[in-house]
Here is the input.
Amino acid sequence: MAVLNLVQAINEGLRQALEEDERVLLLGEDIGKDGGVFRATDGLYEVFGEQRVLDTPLAESGIVGLAVGMAAYGLRPVAEIQFLGFLYSAVDQIFTHAARIRARSRGRYSCPLVVRTPYGGGVKAPELHEESSEALFCHMPGIKVVVPSTPSNAKGLLLAAIDDPDPVLYLEPTRLYRLLKEEVPDEPYRTPLGKARIARAGHQLTIIAWGSMLEVVLRAAKDYDAEIIDLMTLSPFDRETLLESARKTGRVLIVHEAAKTGGFGAELAATIAEEAIMSLRAPIRRVTGYDVVPPLPLLEDHNLPSTERIVAAIEDLLRY
Amino acid sequence: MPKTPIAQFQIDRLSILDPSGQIDEDLMPELSDSQLLQLYELLTYTRMADQRALDLQREGRLGTYPSSLGQEAAQVGSGFALQKNDWVFPNFRELGVFLCQNYPLELIYRYWTGDERGLQSPEGINIFPMCIAVGTHVLHAAGAALAAKYRGDDMVAAAFLGDGATSKGDFHEALNMAGVYQLPLVVICQNNQWAISVSRESQTASETLAQKAIAHGIRGIQVDGNDVLAVYAATREALERARSGDGPTFIECETYRMSDHTTADDARRYRDPQEVAKWQERDPLLRMRRFLEQQRLWSHGDQEQLELTLKERLSRVVKAAESTAPPSAEEMFRYTCHALSSRQQEQLKECLNGGP
Here is the structure.
């Protein structure tokens, strides 16, 4: 086993997918000779050539729309969009087509594509480079939304996403790309979609997080007997694991960096309230980004959930 | 430092069959007598099937419907040139193209009645679900063309759209991609002069739509879209070039939407009846019939017989469409993803039981 960071694990996953299946093609801006702006596709163009690692014109809707046609024709395209904020111009292709082709054609065509994109804050990047609008995509039936949090699950979830017969939005926490390193199994393996992971077992409260926030939560809760759940797949999310933990601990805290109103935490909180409220001892709490336009670097620390805010919420919950 | 022209472009217009039924022998594509008759039958079938849909809509037996009246030559001329292994990415006003591919008319009627099963292309017919979000599907055709090229398949992707779609970003992104990757793609535009209430002149300051190809480095041509022979010839040539690895083509078929945008629209609110009358004289069926009659391939009796046969066929189609049982609620769930999530399973149960 090699020690890899998250972006290296993604690179290895992509390489193995290309090796395993001739239907897999990568496409995106600067992913070929340049190896991607974050080097996620580094070296793949050299090995697999321009037929399988395609540098595209600068057109996000075009990239996703092209991938929709490729997928419907029988390939397994993996598209890279440079930042989640640039995926907005391709939302039409995702909502109108990728999510619906199976339904609109009554199963005659399907759309097994993966859209990979870096997302989330904490990297002091320019405007629109730190979006975390995952909830928008979770609201649209027909697509899956996956967020890795470690090098190991990044590789396993990516390979599972590429295998999946439906479109998957694979959101890569930019802040974690080179922050975390760990041993990653060399062989190709799949981390099942739709399953959450107990990142740390505990009894006093349940904390649910994903992506970059998981790392913050693990630090914030190190002195508490918290059960920390790494959601990994947001859509469809693993209800059973959440409910079981909520029933066990009776206290639930949800942490995400996206704005609070309409954020994915709202769906999780509503689900737990609907199905496990009788087991709760405390109100469900959310620590999230504020309902503000994602700020530029000088203000972003005010907006991103901090360990202090998380600790305060934990203390509050433990008072019940 | 001199200022010199560095690039010059030209757009051709192809026209073979004039409104009086005369053809330009030099430009006439190779078509047997039986193929010429087949073209005319398809034109007539498209018009009658379209009229039948309008009648059904008025009787409350069909939902909102976009008529193809006046555009039959643009649809049939291009659809007829396609081969069985080609893939079609249609817009929503493409009845003639569907009929050329032997797509069951019954399914089209059912779709416009609100039955999703009408978009399930039967095996062996490679038609994508008709695109409602204008112009966004040209990219899918480009993607399929790219996939076919990668696999070495003998397939051309054909995308169909209207004049309004040429204002959309996805249209331009698709043409640009097609040029960059030299894709086996043919994009066929039915310029019917109206995008609901917006005229062709208000849609774009371009002198022609065909010239929009030039900026993307691909071939563009304008054809008389009411001339089924010109549309066929231009499409066949473009398909052959695409098939032989010679890249994409954009074809503008200049035609006219004789009907309202859909049955929910009233075109009298925004367009001059004199303009409609002018285009009436250029009717695509009439000129083909005149040509066939002049060639002694067609007679009044043939016309009566054809109309009778098609009328009977349409009655059978309508009967079959209307006697199909409606889809079950379970169908909503079955095709959302390849498998149901635990929540969807519960919702399905709730839906079938009428409550939680």
